[in-house]
Amino acid sequence: MTLMSYAMRREIIMNSEGWQADEAAVAAKKILCPLEKDKTKRPSQSKDVAVKRAINPKIKQLTPTFDTLAYQDLLAMVYATEEVNIKSKLLQNVSLGFLIYDTCSTEVTAIENSLALLSAQQTLSPNYVCQSESKISGTTGEFLSYVSQPIAELLGIFRFPQISHGSGAPLLSDKIRYPSFVRTIPNTYFQPYGLAQIIVHFSWTWIGILYADNEYIIQQSQQLKQELAMFGICVAFFEMLPASVPRTKVLVIADMIQKSTAKVIVLYVYEAQLSAVLEELVSRNITDRVWIGARSWMSRSFTSKQVIWKLLTGAVGFAMFSGRIPGFKEFLYNVHLNRYPDDIFIKIFWSNAFGCKWPSNKTNLNLAEQQTTDNSQMCTGNEKLTTLNPAVYPVDEFRYSYNMYNAMYSLVYALKNLRDCKTGEGSFVNGSCADSKDFRTWQFLHYVKNVHFKNSAGDEIFFDANGDIPVLWDVSNCVLNPKGYLQYIRVGYYTPYASPGKQLILNDSAIMWAKGMGKIPRSVCSESCSLGFRKATRQGEPVCCYDCVPCSEGEITNRTADSIDCLKCQDDHWTNAERDACVKKLVEFISYEEPLGSTLAVIAIILSTFPASVLWIFIKFRDTPIVKANNRGLSYILLIVLMLCFLCSLLFISPSNSISCLLRQVAFGILFSICVSSILAKTITVVIAFNATKPGNNLRRWVGTKTPVIIVLFSSAVQVCICAGWLATSPPFPENNMKYYKEKIVIECNEGSIGMFYCMLGYLGFLASVSFIVAFMARTLPDRFNEAKFITFSMLVFVSVWLSFIPAYLSTKGIYVVAVEIFAILSSTAGLLSCIFIPKCYIILLKPELNTKEGFRGKTT
Hints:
This protein is an alpha/beta fold. It has four domains: about 1-185 and about 325-345 and about 395-460, Rossmann fold, CATH 3.40.50; about 190-320 and about 470-510, Rossmann fold (3-Layer(aba) Sandwich), CATH 3.40.50; about 535-585, no CATH class; about 595-695 and about 705-855, Rhopdopsin 7-helix transmembrane proteins. The chain contains 24 helices and 25 strands. An eight-stranded mixed beta sheet has the order 8-7-9-10-11-14-15-16, sandwiched between helices. A six-stranded mixed beta sheet has the order 2-3-1-4-5-6. A three-stranded mixed beta sheet has the order 23-25-24. β9, α9 and β10 (about 290-295) form a beta-alpha-beta unit. It is rod-shaped.
């Protein structure tokens, strides 16, 4: 926890923020109030720097571990202080100094040192300050959020300004609980949303999450998990790492990662917790995972763990915005014991950076006396910082150091605004200003919250009502530099306040994935279902684990892969073979272009020539006995109707339309009724003619042309009435039938009223049955030219055809229904023509001697 003091002279008392020092540093500790009173121990000139340490007296021994990046944060504070005191003219006649208190990364120590800060004496008395000549204005720190919370809660009671450069917990934005806390690091509330957007951007749907046993991190990781679920992304494992990870836990987590099919793992942990796990993965040569890092370690972790560099190559995640600090790189290279001889950390840093050790018997800071003959093991002080590997001493990228730099300048500008305050301008209480030489911390807090300035890099720094700066994260890619060290490369930005679609900006081509991953790696539980398939979730498994099931008939997936449901095609469309597109259904009907239709048409036309030929023969031989004996007029009518019956089948061979649908069944019914009526009339005429020759028979008066005409007209009129009623009530109409075939549309005629259709057929059957019965009874009449036996056989053929037509008509579908009816028309018509007229044509053409009066009477030789 860094404390900035406002005094007329400059003094720097340095200690670590979570750092640890050696015994020499412990021996050099001083308590604030005694130090203030012992003026003889202070430097005589303002340019000198005294380096001391104020620590918790209860700490007896400290482990000499060192964090170079945290040391750079301290140096950023030193640099900012020197820059203001030496170069800047922001505070005229005022020099700045600071104190450093060690929190040891624990809440208890943080509270103790906060109380020491407030009382400025060894005996903790927060309401009493023994410091007489310099006034503590504010504090910068702490770095860790869970340590900052109790500090902010305590300092908030006294409205003591606190500016953190590393605590991003959303809870700290609560100004009721933490009224004096502000920060130069973005609030991490939006970090889970940003991480989710990165995962969505790369189309990863199967990930693992490792998170630390920390209230703030648990909340963030749960928030991330919920956000991922909203995007349909599943979590393969959600594992917590305790603060101290035992070896058994390391093995369990390593086994889990090794066995999991999730290739992407989000890390919400600290370096100390994860190092052992990563080292175990390296030993197992598991290097095909993509690590997605939260801000906690993507900004400043794993820089010295060379054994896991190979594993972390290709990691992507959020890092603190890397700002510029002009002149800071040169300052870092010029840090030396000669320049800061009282810096208790510089020797520790030097030993860690160069891998050497200082002679134990030399505590004097005179470098000339510390030379040893073993230069490879002992530190000389002549080592050059410019030769250090950037992984050990990074000087090209400043993240938290940049935030520390801005935190220091926020206090400076707040102090400047307080000193420059004029009554009515920038004042806060009744239009008055605070006394710049004797102000209260709550008065100074007002200026800290309202500070707004541009730093030396030209970046605007200000705080919102919650004490937060605008959220802007770097998206960093962890790569292995050609020089052999791990480096974070900026590949994009994330700002949640931008318009949708512009919050996350990524340069995919700039990202270097792990070795062997030439393109964006995939992390899915199940491979994407291609077009034509849908996802079927596996029972008992997350929704991201599924099987790909083909779409049902008539359904497709054509928009995106991984469809949950298939889309049903329109009624007049059907699926293609791949089931990824709906295609227009084939239209089917009997036409002259297709083989079936053209064949039936040719047969109908050819067969129609036969009754025409017979009619020509009958007309030519109209005066012969056989033509006269078989009712010449009825024969003409029958032949003409038979020819039309053949031709009426052509009405069925064409695309169905309203006219053809109305005509074809009606024409068929009426023509066949005339045909059967004519045959019935011929049969009755034969019976009447034979019985009329008997003496005293009353049938003589029915002999003549009137009787056949009446029979034909009456019988046909009944059929005409049936057809007229059919057309009047429920006429046939064209229809696109999609019931028969799923992939085809059959254009057919809907009969309208199927009952009327069967009434029409039934009446034809009735006429045929009557004709058959009459002809059957008259077949034995003693007449050489008696055609009753031929009519009997023809009716037998006719009735047989139409009786077999009904089940065939009902069992077929599509164009074959029409084909069956055409076949029935042609076959029944041909049967009538053949059975009735072929015997007569045989006699007329081949047995002319029988076609004479003598032959008619049976007197031929």
